[in-house]
Each structure stands twice: as C-alpha cells, then as structure tokens.
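To: structure subgroup
Subject: Chain for Friday's discussion

All,

I'm putting the inputs and outputs inline so they're searchable in the archive.
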Amino acid sequence: MRYQKSNPEITFEEFLNLCKTLKSFKSLRLREYEVKDWSQTKLIFERKSTEKLWEMEMKDVYKAYVELQSFKTSDFKPYLNRTYSPALGLLLNLGLLLKE
C-alpha cells in the first residue's frame, strides 16, 4: 500500500498538539492501542491485547513523517525503536497519511 502525506508542512508543535487529541489508535493490522499518558513529547500507550505499556518519542515520529517518502512499517526502523507499526498507525489515524 502506498501513502501520501496530507500535511507535509506541519510544524512539530502542530503535530504534537494533534497527537495529544488522540485517546486511542489502531495499527495497520488493527491492533488497538490506548493512550495512557504523556511525558513531555513522549507518548505512553498500552497495547490492548497484551496490556503492555510502550513509549514512543513524538520527535522521532515527526522526523520520520517529514523525511520519509515511503511509508512501510520497515521504513520507520532508522527513526524508532520497536514501535514501527504503532507509529504508522498513529499517522494514519491522525489523517496525516492518505492512501494513494
């Protein structure tokens, strides 16, 4: 599946504010994640099926969004540690990526 950016000029502040509106989101494989807390620019979320807590640095997700032209889960590896699928799901749920 190919995606295009819906807002390639978004600033980090706008991106972070948009992220903070989410209460939950889904990955491409429809795994559900619930937002639990924020620590400055770090999102703390729970994978519903395992109840395991994860952290994702939004500065890294933003950098990936701005720099990447291809948005496969594996494309996120240089930017994030083990949260590739949730990061892609987050961008899709926010409407920042649209199917081509």
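Points worth raising on Friday:
The chain has one domain: 3-99.
The longest helix spans residues 58-67.

D.
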